[in-house]
Amino acid sequence: LYLIMKTAITAFLFFSAAILCKAQTNNALSVTDSKTNDKINELEKDKVDTIIRYYVDCIGSMHLRPPDSCLAYDIKYLFWRQNGKHYMQRFDECKEHSMFEINQDIFALLRNNYSEIKIAKIKYPEFKVKEKGKLKTFYFSIDHSCHNIFEIHIGNKIINKDIDDYALETKYFDEKYLNRNFYSNKKSILNKLKTVVEHDVDIYNQNH
Q: Are 194 and 163 in contact, with CB atoms under 8 Å apart?
C-alpha cells in the first residue's frame, strides 16, 4: 500500500507540473486574444473591411508542457484582404509570426456565398431507430470535441460560426444507424469554408 501511494503521489506531482488544463490557462489564452485584437484594430484603422479570425477550440483537451518552456497551443489565425492582396498571419502565446500572402480562395468563397454562410449551420447527428415497430428520432452531441471557430468581420458586421468536428464527421451510430444529417453537412458551405482555411493553414505552417 505504501509503495502504491508513493508511486501515485510521485505521478501526481510530475503530471501537475507538466500538464496544463485548458480551463485553467486563462492568462495564456488572453495573450493570443490580445495580439489578434490589436491586429484587427490596426487593420480596421487602415480601412481593411474584410477580416477573418479562425481557430480550433478542443473542449476538454489537456496539454503536456515541459517545465521552463513555451509550447504553443492557443493558436489563432487572421486572414485579410488589403490593397488587392490577400494575407494571413498566425498568433500564439510563445512568439511573433510574420504575415504571409495567400491566394484569394477564402475571400472568393466568402464573397460568392455570403448570404448562405450567414444562415448556414452544421446539424448535430440525427438517427432513426425502430423500437417496438415504431421509428423514433434521436439526437446526439458530446461535450469533448474540437470546434472550428470563425469570426468574420465585414464592414461593421461580425458573423460567428462554430463548426463542431463531431457533428461534421459522425456518419453512423453504433456502426449501423446512419446520421441523417451527415451528407447535408458534408455538402454545407461551412464545410467548404473549413476545408479552404485548413489548406491555407497547412501551407502557412509548412513555410514558417
A: yes
Residue type, 7: T
**Which has the closest alpha carbon to 72: 28, 13, 26?**
28
SS3 8: helix
Tell me the pTM. 0.80
> Once rounded to an integer, what is the mean pLDDT over residues 71-77?
85
For residue range 101-120, what is the model confidence (pLDDT) as tens digits? 999 999 999 999 999 999 99
| Residue matched to cell numbers 454562410 | 117
Contact 94, 75 (CB under 8 A): no
H-helix or E-strand containing 205? helix 189-206
Q: E strands along 140-196, which residues?
A: 146-154, 157-164, 172-173, 177-178
The residue assigned the cell 492582396 is 85
Q: What is the C-alpha to C-alpha distance for residues 193 and 113, in angstroms, rounded to an integer? A: 10
